Each structure stands twice: as structure tokens, then as C-alpha cells.
Amino acid sequence: MKHILPLLLMAGSVCAQPPAKRPINPSDVARLQTISDPQVSPDGNWVAFVQSSVDVSKDKRNADLWMISWDGKESVQLTNSPDGESTPRWSPDGRYLSFTSSRNGASGSQLWLMDRRGGEGKKLTDLKGELEEYEWAPDGKRIALVIRDKDYSDSAKTKIRTPYVMDRYQFKQDIQGYLDRRAAHLFLYDVEKKTLDTLTKGIYDESSPVWSPDGKQLAFVSNRTADPDKNENTDIYVMAAQKGAAMRQLTTWAGRDGSPVWSPDGTQIAYTRSTAATNFIMYDQAVLAVVPVQGGEPRLLSLALDRPVRNPRWSVDGKAVQVLVDDDRRTYVGAYALADGKLSVVAGGDRAFSDLERHPKGYWATLMSEPQLPTEIYAVEGTTVRRLTNVQDEFVTPLALATVEGYTSRSKDGTQVSNLLFKPANTVAGQKLPAIFFIHGGPVGQDSYGFDLSRQILASGGYAVVGVNYRGSSGRGLEFCKAIYADWGNKEVADILGAVDQLVQKGVADPDRLGIGGWSYGGILTNYTIATDPRFKAAASGAGSSLQLTMYGIDQYVNQYENELGAPWKNLDKWLKLSYPFLKADKIKTPTMFMASEKDFNVPVAGSEQMYQALKSLGVPAQLIIYPNSFHGITTPSYQKDRFVRYLDWFDKYLKAPALQAQK
Questions:
Q1: In whole angstroms, how far apart are CA 363 and each of 210, 313, 367, 391, 618?
Q2: What does 573-595 look like in DSSP terms, one character per residue?
Q3: Residues 337, 345: Cα–Cα separation, whole Å
Q4: Residue 327, domain member (yes or no)
């Protein structure tokens, strides 16, 4: 017996070992939870939020409302309907939680009200138009609504839709489809009487309504130029919160003003404004501004920072404005002191913050993700960052995720570029890997230290995966962002190739097994790159285009085209120069898989079809994948999984060594 006991203990210890971690794979798309829209209760004890999960049987995501206690010890699911709920907002007294939903067969999205003490949500509104935004008044008796006029265009009694009739300069938009002239206006809803008063009328849209602390006024955003389709100018307006009140224009910048928030004493409004004052301001970055409610010159607090800021929020005492700052692969929480205009970093590091909501004690609720952890809710208390939710633990625990590190490269003209390198888990030091350069879209935006599902899944296939913050990206200053204006496929390609050269020189990437891919502008840059350099053995171009001349009038970017490139009939040479991947398709030797969404009005399917047809005509291996009934961003879970499976299969076919192929 004395020999049996140790054996039993040894067996028990073996059984107690945690299971070995496995690589992430495309099927994990269905396991990933998404968290959004955290809202702190008026008493500061709870944070309500939206949690979305995949319903595999229906092949769609379903969003429910949850709340987590401020100490992180208690989590409560508030809704569990198949229709989905979003936009949770606390009533000012904290007794109710409102939300939007089209549940129970409701006509469009309606406003619902849930007593936090328990019970089912009750439908509060029966709106005829489309509810886009809402905001509680400080007294809890009224709600400001943004409602888009009802669509009466299709009155056919059969299943045959009446023709679309359009007369706008910009007549199409991804997801929305063909655009009519229905406007979005401000309304005032009386919670007790259930009556609706119209605050604004006319041909212009209003958005982003926010109440003054005393509940007497509303600030909002509108473009009231002669033809809003032809520019991106928006301004902030203020009006009394009552029917028939006149509106007063507060800002006059010819660029973009938005995201207004009132100071606690109601005397100032903080907001973001564009750096440029031009018709077209894609290559730009938002600046934090503060203006007196009575009018006057704004203070541009973050102009000297030369980094984009967003999500402005006043401190409880009104002495500072908190913002999120995008800075070279990171997004941190910063605070601008009103007294001297100085910036302090509240919470930062190699991670990405993505939301910010004030706690009554001066703390902050925020969303944040890290390279190996998807988005969770955190409390920021002083400079201490404390995790509240643990929603992603079940997703992450069984996975052996890629490590993520930053590296810099230099392009042929000497420009320094910031990149992110994903290495498969347990990579042997000094091992050369097949590499995929997976290029971000935008182009304005940045690859950050936040969790990146796409690159994690690609890395799980045994690849070094790289994100390149090429010129045109944000987070490196305005001039870096503007560098590609009217000069697409030039400096960005040089930056991508510089990042490739650096990784090859470091002995990380195998020069004989290089791949490239991306979606949207990442797909466009994939086309530009393989038409420039033949070193890539495989490519996956998603939602891209190359014959840019043919995009005019079939996508949603007419304003950009005419302002950045000029009309095609006036600047044909410029358009043809930027169309070189198609016009010089005979230089492409890289086997390429093209992907597109059937109903994409952002980068229409024609862009991928043209390049596919060209390579097939030239005898270059090519494949075309079109996702039915999908828009620019693919949201159907099975299609998301399918795209990852096809990425890996395509790259494996051309980048894996014969010995590795034989083992498959």
C-alpha cells in the first residue's frame, strides 16, 4: 500500500494539469464576445454596457445589456431577447435604464425603459421615423431625440419596389444604400405625457444633441451650408430646449466641428475640430477646442500636440478635459488642464483605450484592449487602471496567442515607419518564418497595440504577420498623414517594402515566402504593391480597387475625388496614373485571391472583379470570392470565419515549404 499512495498522488497531479493551450483558429470567431458603450450609473455603483455574442443557429450576432458593479464583483445580465438591444442610458435619478430595440415586432428601433429594480423593459415610444440618437434631460422628464424622417417612397402594394428617385450630389452610401433627401431632426419627448415636440425642421440634418447642466438648452451639430453633400463642414449650434426656439451658431470654422460637451457650470463647451478648413479633410486630425457658450474665439488646447484626439469629457470640477489620444501605435487617456493648457497622461502603455465615461467621484470608466486580450471595461482611478469585466477570459484561456512587438523601419527616402510584428506562440529564436504583411485600411487610422483578431488568426498558421503604419496613417502627426494626398500607391508602397526589407534583414522573415493582404485601402495597397514588386509569392486583396477612373460615380467618395484628384474629364492623366495596378497588370506575377462584398457601396465589387479578370486573362493564378448581401464590413459570422479559412488556405498553398505541405 505504501507504494500505491504515491502513484495515486502522481496520477492525480497529472490529471490536475491544465489542458495544453491551442492556436487560435477561424472557428473562434463564434466565441469572441464584443463589449461596447459603457455607461456609469448616477450613483457610480454600476456600469451598464452592451455585450454581443454569436448566435450560431441564426448566423448573426445578438446584443444584450449587462451591468457590472464598480468594484467588479457582481455582473448582471439585464436583457436576453433574440431581437437585440443597444444604446443603454441611465435616467438622471438612476432609477431607470433606457435602451433602443426593435424587439417584439416593433416598427423600427424604438425607445424602451427598464426599471433597474427588476422587471421587463417597456416600450416608451412608437416613432414613425428612424430613431438615430437620444439624450436624457437633467430633470429626467424629457428626452432629446434625433429622428430621421419616415421613408414614404415605396408605397407599392406588391412586392415590386418602386424605382429609386435621386437628385443629390452624393446619392449612395454603404449600408444606407441609395440616398434620398430625408432629413434627421431634433425632437423633445415628454416621458410622462408621452408627447413629441418638434424642435428643428427643414432640409438639414442635426446630430449629437447634448443638454446644458441646467436643462434649459441643447447643443447640437449640423452642416447648414448651401449643399452639405459638397463639403464636410459641420458647426455647433445652441438653442433653448423648447418648441419654436431659435438656434444660434456657436462655431464658424470652415472645417469640421463636432462632439460637443458642456462644462459642469454650463459656461463653456469642449469639442473637437478639424485642423484643416477645406472642403475635403480626410487627411486630418481632430483638435481639442473649448469655446464660451456665449460665443468667442475657441482655445485650441491640443493643436501643438500634433496628434488626433477624441472623446472629450470634462472632469467633475470643470478644471480639465479628458481625451483619448492616438500616438504611434498607442491610444492613451490624457487630460488637458484649463488653467495652463498643459497635457498630462492619465493612463497609457502598449495598449489601446477606446472609450471614456465619467464617474461621479471623478474616476473614469473606459474600454481597453491589449495585444493578447480583447476589449474589457476598466476603471481609471487617478492613474490606476483596474479591470472590471472578465468577459474575455473564456475566450482567451484555451488559446496560445501570438506575441506582439513593435519595430521601426526606414523607407528608401529615409522616412521612419512604425510597425507591429506578430509572432506565432512558441516561435523558436532565430527561426525564419513565412511572413504576411497585412495592411490596414483607411488610409487614415493606425495599427495599434490593441487586440487584433485578424492578425492573431493569420499568425496561428505559423506566419510572422506585420502591420505597417505607412504614410497616410494617423498617430504620427499631420504631415505624415497628409503625405499621400493625391499620390496614392507611391509613398505607402515604399513604406511597406521598407518594412519588408527590415524584417528580412533581421532574419525574421523568409524572403522566399512573403505574402501580402488587406481589406479596403489595405486591399488597394495590396494591388499597388504587387504591381510594383514581384517578390510576394501570394496576395489576398479584399474590397480593393485599381482602375480608379471607374470608381467615380459608383462608390460613395465623389466629394473626395473632385477635391483631391479633380474631375476625371479635367485631370485624366492623374486618374490614369493612380490606376497603374490595372493598366500595368501585365507586371503582376503574384497569385492573388480577390474578395468583395456584393452590396458594398464603399469600395464596390467592380474593383475586385476588374483585377480578377485582368489576372485571369494574363494567366496569373487568381480567385474571386464574393460574399452575398454583405456591405463593406462583413458582419455575418459564417462569412467572417470563411474569410479567415480562405486566407490561410491561400497563403498556405503558396508560402509553405514543400516539406510542410507534405505534412498537411
A1: 21, 11, 14, 22, 61
A2: HHHHHTTHHHHTGGG--S-EEEE
A3: 11
A4: no
- Who contacts 284 (Cβ-Cβ below 8 Å, separation ≥6)? 255, 256, 274, 275, 276, 444, 478, 481, 482
Domain end (from 102, 136, 169) = 102
Looking only at the bridges linking them, the beta strands covering 172-173 and 130-136 are: unpaired
Residue 267 in grid coordinates: 459656461
Grid cell in block for residue 497: 517594402
What's the pLDDT score for residue 657? 57
- The string of pLDDT tens digits covering residues 624-639 is 999 999 999 999 999 9
Please report, for the domain that includes residue 513, its CATH number.
3.40.50.1820
416 found inside a domain: yes
Is residue 267 domain-resident?
no
The total number of structural domains in the chain stands at 2
Chain-centroid distance of CA 126 in Å reads: 31
Mean of all residue pLDDT scores within the chain? 94
104, pLDDT greater than 70: yes
State pLDDT tens for residues 128-161: 999 999 999 999 999 999 999 988 777 777 888 8
State yes or no: pLDDT of 1 exceeds 50: no
pLDDT at position 235: 98
Q: Which domain, by its residues, includes 565?
A: 400-658
Task: Decide if 366 contacts 378 (C-beta within 8 A).
Answer: yes
User: For residue 63, what is its C-alpha cell?
Assistant: 446584443
180 or 17, greater pLDDT: 180
Kindly tell me if the per-residue pLDDT of 8 is higher than 60: no
Q: Which set of grid coordinates corresponds to residue 31?
A: 466565441
Tell which of 81, 102, 123 closes a domain: 102
The alpha helices in 55-203, defined as continuous H runs, are none
Is 307 a member of any domain?
A: no
Instruction: Specify burial of residue 554 (Cβ count, 10 A radius: 0-12, 13-18, 19+).
Output: middle
